[in-house]
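A common beginner's mistake is to predict each chain separately and then try to dock the pieces by hand. The better habit, illustrated here, is to supply every component at once so that their relative placement is modeled jointly.
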Amino acid sequence: MSMNREGRPTKPDSAGEAGEAQTWTGNRALMLEEPLIFEMDEDIGTGVDFDEAPKVASRLGGLERNRPIGIPGLSEPQAVRHYTRLSRQNYAIDLGLFPLGSCTMKHNPRLNERMARLPGFADIHPLQPVDTVQGALELIAELGGWLVKLTGMHSVAMSPKAGAHGELCGLLAIRAALEARGDAREVILVPESAHGTNPATAAFVGYRVESIPANERGRVDLDALKGRLGPDVAAVMITNPNTCGLFEPDMIAISEAVHAAGGLVYCDGANFNAIVGRVRPGDLGIDAMHINLHKTFSTPHGGGGPGSGPVVFSEALTPFAPLPFVEQQGDHFVLVEEETAGEHHASSFGRMTAFHGQMGMFTRALSYILSHGADGLRQVSGDAVLNANYILRSLEDVLEAPFGESGPCMHEALFSDKGFAEGLSTLDLAKGLIDEGFHPMTMYFPLVVHGAMLVEPTETESKAALDQFIGALRSVAERAKAGDESLKAAPVHAPRRRLDETQAARKPVLVWKPPVQAEAAE
Amino acid sequence: MLRTIGAPSVEDLFVDVPEAARLATKIDGLPDHASELAVERRLSAMARRNLAAGEVPFFLGCGAYKHHIPASVDHLIQRGEFLTSYTPYQPEIAQGTLQALFEFQTQVARLYGCDVANASMYDGSTACWEAIGMARRITRRTKAILSGGLHPHYVSVAKTMARFTGDLLETSVPDLSPEPDTARLLDEIDSDTSCVVVQYPDILGRIGDLSELAERAHAAGALLIAVVTEPVALGLLRAPGEMGADIVVGEGQSIGVGLNFGGPYVGLFATRDKYVRQMPGRLAGETVDAEGKRGFVLTLSTREQHIRREKATSNICTNSGLCALAFSVHMTLLGEAGLRQLATLNHAKAVQAAERLAKVPGVELVSETFFNEFTVRLSTEARPVVRTLADRGILGGVSLGRLYPGAEALENGLVVAVTETSTDEDVEALAGALEEILA
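With all components supplied together, the output reads:
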């Protein structure tokens, strides 16, 4: 019997171009279009089984719902498919290098996830008697101890919920400390290159924000700062390493000058990953600094949180730290709340969230810290800085590095759009990078550099991964410089082409409405 | 790599750090790295020193509730594309997160009976404070009247912030009475009032009609803010937005998130269309791409700190994205029908438990109305009773002494939450233990 040699072709023929044709579903193989849950015809009631409820006389006071809510229900297989399909339209660290400057998108170890889900941590109530949560309090105390030692500070407030909440915590303590000495100051100085949260937080606490300029080396202009200091300046908010990816070499002098003028120094710790295990902010004269556990200590970003923003304090600010906090008394851990604070903590500025902070993030962060240890954490910052400098030096011939001359960068490399062809921008380059299979870097930040591109590789990436990224970025940058107009259409391979953000803001559609209702609203 | 960089060693990359602050070696006094197994052992030992809610008869509520969460919720939020993605600033490669947030916003708005909702806040207490600030911006007034039934920790958060923002807060401690303090609130509304803040159901579990409060607040040019700490209640109860609340905020933890010793949780925030530009936090909105296909983006960011800096509506940046996703997945599995069943089951079990406990000598039911949480007055101080119950392996509720230290009139009060996770045996165990302890 002879073999049939004319069956399934094993090589694509030239008609493969037909792949561009529209499909009936709108899907493109693994790229699946997914409707909103409100648009599915599959509302089956509920995907959850319940026991029969016993019949009782209602105690709801006659306030029962009398109108439908309008929330569809899917079965488990439908729901699993819906969210799995959606997930596939996301870029993620698990898929590749995520060079978002100032965001520290490092690998999220899965041991952390397992630890956070232990019932002894995940299934305890914040108001249980403290004798039944000794292990949880111990964990908070131990993590706090690490953070204090790693930063060389005096104490730590664990309750802030994210970085910006931590900034708020720091500034509230500063304001409380100044008020306690009868010193009403009105101004917070913030470098031009600061994160937007810094001025927003300062204003929220009731301060007037003034900007201090950067020098030509991308650092705080020390003379300008000294010239502005005075009895009205409550504090300086400084990011170190700063948002240009550079260490502030005058940091000690800055702190001394601020302290001499009666002010305090707040440090935005978003970039702590660059110096962990090598530099202790306490040695730089800092009075308060938040630490983003979701950056340096690898808790997942989760598509925009939850984060966690513990704040470390100098001795001067410690009495003003928020409630509640954990204190060790012999073998026993106590939770110091309003009632137990007593005179010892009478100057605390109070409570800033309902409970004790982001326990789920604490567990993950401690798991990461114990895994790395003092030696491993030092290697983290070393590798992160090594990777960033490798990117900086590998690309500075094709992309302008505005501060490349001034020496090594820290954990992130900063480039500008100088030399791009007329009409092509940082945005076009970023979108081109999407087609290459990478998440873009942070764009147009810091504001002090034109068309800024801030690249933070983190210690996660291998040399091979960095070379792949460098190759892609080099290619796109060369296209931008050569005036390749096709970049303006990028991305063409993503689940969506460029989205119209102007329309979204002009006529906001923030919730789904059934088509008839939506038309009527026009 | 060092050759490309032109540096002799990694240490040389840190030349900008002042010599005095540069550590030559690792930090002293901290242990070195450990294996996965060793870390797991260490943390598991700590976890075992806690009494997990699922192990014992459990009746704690007051802002955090134990509910059954379907297994698929945790599975889905652990997909790396959700877990390890960033805030969706690059919408072309973040449609998954953005569509899920758009669905979440719609679910929350409908649940609360409001026009729009945001993409989440840190938790209920910070959402509550942000709502008070938003009312100040809208009304240009600074006096906020807080119900005595508002969670005391939410009140504390508001007090902390008000000290620095100049808001005037009228606060009070609740009475151990059958009805919420609606009458007092109605009396206090005046032409300086920016908002009235009322919890529904309140901290003692009591449920009050919000309609009259809304009318009176509006007549005085003020806003009504409703705070919901137990979203499951809205499976049965009329939505605050339907009764005229202008801003509805609350805790979403009950749906999808779990207890987690207080965090991370998810703050819900909804309001009327006309106030959307005064709203804090991120918003996902619908738009189209260059080919006309529908897609979603973060929008109205001109309210936010990264654009507006010191003029932003809030300093919030990272919020509670993954918890919002968990909420939304759980809500999608429940659907309206399931939410209603869940709420019905909670209410029925709570009613039965309240009736059972009221038969214990020395226990008197205080709350006339309630959903899945009610207050009882014990014949003795409740706080030591809660400790004794814990010693017997029963987590029996939250004593008002814990929440209102020093308030003698409240010290016999115990707030008991009963959800679908509580069995008849659990209730019997609590009732039996109380009979012995109070005898």
